[in-house]
């Protein structure tokens, strides 16, 4: 069975600095998708960035980028120029390419931004 | 379209009572998902619909839980004879059938507290 592990329950970063959130996963599949979601306090889950496993190039969305290491089954999220609005729970999630319904989630990392 | 709507946002109920939650997905999305999220954890899959058909149910969905999606539009999730262990955030999400690498669009959730 697939699993997703986020080993950092909480991270803090100074505003304007860079922070990296870790995620590892376990799967025997070769084709899948990986996602990072952001969940601000009392607000909805929002997709931050996604990566297709067949793509070697790391995904980038403005200040957010990933370091996808397929062989190591690692999928870390880098947030550059951290802003107060980035404070939230961040969840890493996995979905097999043939599965259209179920995401497998990590336990989340709480990101604190220090002004 | 303003996204996925969930009602109510918060529900406090006494143990043993029945509760019903509603989810209105994005109108053109034919897939609808229910997840449960407890404090400090990632979401856990409960069930999903394609149009009005319920295609998959998790083992987490005991016989006290029932979900419907009449006419393939909004969905309801009912919990009968609530227990304290049912206290959680209930998340609804929707997507197009051919989701590809895109993620879901989530609602803001319904937080259930059973006292």
What does this structure look like?
The complex is a heterodimer of chains A (115) and B (115). In chain A, 0% of the residues lie in helices and 52% in strands. Chain A is mainly β. The radius of gyration of chain A is 14 Å and the shape is globular. Chain B has strands at residues 5-7, 10-13, 19-24, 31-37, 44-50, 53-57, 65-68, 75-79, 88-95, 105-106, 110-114. Chain B contains no helices and eleven strands. Chain B is globular, with a radius of gyration of 13 Å. Classes of the chains: A mainly beta (115), B mainly beta (115). Chain A binds chain B through residues 4, 9, 33, 35, 37, 42-47, 50, 52, 91, 93, 100-103, 105-108, and chain B through 3-4, 31, 33, 40-45, 48, 55-56, 91, 93, 95, 97-99, 101-104, 106-109.
Of all chain pairs, the largest interface belongs to: A-B, 23 and 27 residues
- In DSSP terms (H or I, runs of 4 or more residues), the helix count of chain B works out at 0
Mean pLDDT over all positions of chain A: 93
- Which blocks of ≥5 consecutive residues of chain A have pLDDT under 50? none
Characterize the overall form of chain B.
Answer: globular
Helix proportion of chain B: under 10%
How would the blueprint of this fold be written?
The complex is a heterodimer of chains A (115) and B (115).
Chain A: E1 3-5, E2 10-14, E3 19-21, E4 24-26, E5 32-39, E6 46-52, E7 60-61, E8 64-69, E9 74-79, E10 88-96, E11 104-105, E12 109-114
Parallel strand pairs in A: 2-12
Antiparallel strand pairs in A: 1-4, 3-9, 5-6, 5-10, 7-8, 8-9, 10-11, 10-12
Chain B: E1 5-7, E2 10-13, E3 19-24, E4 31-37, E5 44-50, E6 53-57, E7 65-68, E8 75-79, E9 88-95, E10 105-106, E11 110-114
Parallel strand pairs in B: 2-11
Antiparallel strand pairs in B: 1-3, 3-8, 4-5, 4-9, 5-6, 7-8, 9-10, 9-11
